[in-house]
């Protein structure tokens, strides 16, 4: 309880929090989300919603805070303040571990194991015990097929190309059919055909399995493939909207032009604020 000094104004009533998001339609909800690293503020007072069963693109230049935001979502980021709710629970809650698939920028695979052995290992961690052996085998086989690595299932991961190793990491994230996939620049290093196939897979996952995907990228043409976009710059959120709505709002022909328009607006606003101090 806070005491007021004599003669000091008494505080007014605490602000009424907004309505809680419906966990049946909302996968992620953030309010006043801030992350600091030493003296630097990496994410600044973010507020957004990620709807279920859709692909939300997290777009922005390198260094704008995309990876930090994703680590906050999966519960591995330190010094996070504000509200961050994931699948109806606080981010990092133990019950979310099997409900979220997370792919980092660097492939998380063992080079001295084959593709199938890598997936067998992680499947045993997610779903341990002999009674689950058949189910694990089904999940492994499906995940390998999803990322089009069936013909490489018995190849050592260390002998694969960089793009193939990235797909092994994605296959690991697909094990157990997670409700939410958090993918940090999953198409980096892929040729145009594989990028197209991977985006087709993302849409199949959202449409056929109801999976929610949050996909980061600094390649603006990938924004056109998303249902919804979060556009970031320097730790701030410039927009949270659909591609069509962003183009209409800015009068731009492409999302890239819309992004540049929003950057110019933010820069001009910052300069105006600086000159009026």
TrEMBL record:
Note the SMART domains from the entry: AAA (SM00382)
Assigned keywords, A-Z: ATP-binding, Nucleotide-binding
Spell out the residue ranges making up region: Disordered.
1-25
Start and end residues of each ABC transporter domain: 28-259
Q: What is this protein called?
A: ABC-2 type transport system ATP-binding protein
Task: Read off the CDD domains from this record.
Answer: ABC_DR_subfamily_A (cd03230)
Q: Does the keyword Nucleotide-binding apply?
A: yes
Q: Where is the composition biased (Pro residues)?
A: 8-22
- Organism name: Streptomyces paradoxus
Please give the Gene Ontology molecular function terms for this protein.
ATP binding; ATP hydrolysis activity
Q: Which InterPro entries match?
A: AAA+_ATPase, ABC_transporter-like_ATP-bd, ABC_transporter-like_CS, P-loop_NTPase
Cross-referenced PANTHER family: ABC TRANSPORTER G FAMILY MEMBER 20 ISOFORM X1, ATP-BINDING CASSETTE, SUB-FAMILY H, MEMBER 1
């Amino acid at each position: 309880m806070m005491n007021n000094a004599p003669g000091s104004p008494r505080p007014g009533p605490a602000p009424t929090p907004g309505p809680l998001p419906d966990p049946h339609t909302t996968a992620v909800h953030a309010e006043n989300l801030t992350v600091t690293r030493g003296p630097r503020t990496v994410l600044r007072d973010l507020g957004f919603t990620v709807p279920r069963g859709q692909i939300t693109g997290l777009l922005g230049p390198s260094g704008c805070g995309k990876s930090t935001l994703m680590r906050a979502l999966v519960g591995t980021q330190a010094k996070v303040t504000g509200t961050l709710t994931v699948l109806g629970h606080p981010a990092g809650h133990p019950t979310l571990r099997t409900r979220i698939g997370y792919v980092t920028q660097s492939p998380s695979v063992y080079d001295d194991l084959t593709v199938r052995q890598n997936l067998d290992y992680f499947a045993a961690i997610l779903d341990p015990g002999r009674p689950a052996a058949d189910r694990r085998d089904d999940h492994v086989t499906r995940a390998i097929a999803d990322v089009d690595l069936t013909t490489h299932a018995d190849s050592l991961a260390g002998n694969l190309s960089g793009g193939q190793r990235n797909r092994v990491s994605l296959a690991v994230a697909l094990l157990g059919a997670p409700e939410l996939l958090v993918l940090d620049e999953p198409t980096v290093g892929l040729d145009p055909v594989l990028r197209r196939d991977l985006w087709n897979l993302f849409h199949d996952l959202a449409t056929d399995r109801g999976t929610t995907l949050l996909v980061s990228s600094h390649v603006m043409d990938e924004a056109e493939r998303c249902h919804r976009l979060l556009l970031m710059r320097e730790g701030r959120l410039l927009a949270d909207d659909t591609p069509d709505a962003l183009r209409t709002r800015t009068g731009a022909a492409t999302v890239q032009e819309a992004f540049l328009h929003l950057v110019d607006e933010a820069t001009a606003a910052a300069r105006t604020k600086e000159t009026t101090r």
